[in-house]
Amino acid sequence: MKIKFIYLFPFIFFLSLLVIFFIKFEKIEKGESIEQIQSPLIGKNIPNIKIIKFNENQKISFSKYKNKRFILNFFASWCLPCKIEAPLLNKVSSKIPIIGIAYKDKEEDMIKFLKNYGNPFSEIGVDQLGSIAIEWGVYGVPETFLIDENGKIIYKYAGAISHELYKDKIIPFINND
């Protein structure tokens, strides 16, 4: 009897994993939110690190955003979800400044990406090595941070911005709700 259970165990284990996968997949298809990885930076000031602007030999100065809300978005030309969220970012950029950080991207590819999908960014920083992303706690692209008028990170979203997120989080953020 014990011998049969040993042979059944891998099958039962695999079946359990399959059930968990389908439950998560069903949530995605229904549009239900999936748990976000919480950032330890929420409620803290933005990291004090040097971010060099694209095509310029100067750093992005967050002091010019003092007393203003803004969004910071990590993106890359090779990132499919970045292409998906591009139309919404273009829409958002007419209402609030967005700083883009090009993550591990080639300059020519980034230029082509911005030409094809629009440039919603008031400034673009470059993160060739991924060290800036590490300081911000970025797991992958796209990732978006909402930063209040005091320079505090109040929200982080990993993944492409959806219409639901735009309506539920970004619009209230822009309207100071």
What is the structure about, briefly put?
The chain is of the alpha/beta class and about 180 residues long. Helix content is about 40%, strand content about 15%. Strands 3-2-1-4-5 form a 5-stranded mixed sheet.
Q: What does this molecule look like?
A:
A five-stranded mixed beta sheet has the order 3-2-1-4-5. It has helices spanning 2-29, 80-92, 107-117, 131-136, 163-174; strands spanning 70-75, 98-103, 123-127, 143-147, 153-158. The protein folds into two domains: 1-35; 62-174, 3-Layer(aba) Sandwich (Glutaredoxin). It is built from five helices and five strands, in the order αβαβαβαββα. Helix 2 links the parallel strand 1 and strand 2 (98-103). The N and C termini lie far apart (64 Å). Residues 24-34 have low confidence and may be disordered. The radius of gyration is 20 Å and the shape is globular. It is of the alpha/beta class and 177 residues long.
